[in-house]
Amino acid sequence: METNPDRPGYEPSLDDPALIETNPRYSAVQRLWMIFTSPAEVFADIRIKPTWILALVLMVVFGVLIQVVIMPHIDIESSIRARLADRAAEMSDEQIDEIVEGQQKFAKFGPLMALVIGPIAWALMAGVFLVCLKIVGSEIDFKSTLSTALHAYWPPSVVGGILAMILIQRVGLIPQEEVANVVKAHPAAFMSPDAPPWLLASAGTLSIFNIWIVVLLVIGFKIVGQLSTARATIAALIPWVAWIVMKAGLSMIAGLFS
């Protein structure tokens, strides 16, 4: 492709040094809207000046909203009693009732916990991605990594969250473990509950929304981190693959002791 703007046939590119601007073109609000349709442009703007405060606030508030809407539809009592079924002979009805009552009280603090833990979780996640990016050779800093991650997670989180809040209104009360299957976005939602726990856990992670997040992370890391597509893909996939392996391993261990 011709890269000299003074010659015929020149086509602009976001990575063209001749077009790199010194001032961002979009506000924090515009970036959150445009990331749905023009992610490359948004990440090119983040490369100039990362923004993260508005995205972080909205992600945390949206997470709290999802909990507030979904929690009343979770049948906590039946979920706990089902998990304790194998220990029914060891526990009295009064003990089981106490556990159920305690879990129900604890669940009421879910939204508040999400409000407090949310920012910490995002900071930790950005730190993990930063380490991965440094490993593959990027010179990106923490603020740019956090901004890139937040904007990559925003579209799938909004779409998935809204769908979950809408669809759960149609099912009434459901067991806690079925909440993840309200939106049929991953293979586990179509699998038998009798399938091996590690397989269900792994399949539940391979959702359309998680794949969407990885794609946006690759685009963002490539542009903001100034990496090749291969290196950006490695940085985006390392934590995701590690998460799948950990979920599968924990499910397998839990199955051995159940």
Number of domains: 1
Mean pLDDT level: 83
Sheet with the most strands?
none
Strand content: under 5%
Give the CA-CA distance, first to last residue.
Answer: 61 Å
- Separate helix tally: 10
* Number of E-state strands: 0
Could you spell the SSE succession in H and E letters? HHHHHHHHHH
Q: Which regions are unreliable across 5 or more consecutive residues at pLDDT < 50?
A: 1-12
Morphology: elongated
Helix content: 55-70%
Structural class: mainly alpha
The whole-angstrom Rg is: 22 Å
Entry summary:
This protein has 258 residues and is mainly α.
Structure write-up:
With 258 residues, this protein is an all-alpha fold. It has one domain. The chain is built from ten helices and no strands. Helix 3 (53-70) runs parallel beside helix 7 (142-167) and helix 6 (110-135) packs across helix 10 (229-257). The protein is elongated and about 70 Å long. The N and C termini lie far apart (61 Å). The relative contact order is 0.12. Mean pLDDT is 83; it is low at 1-12.
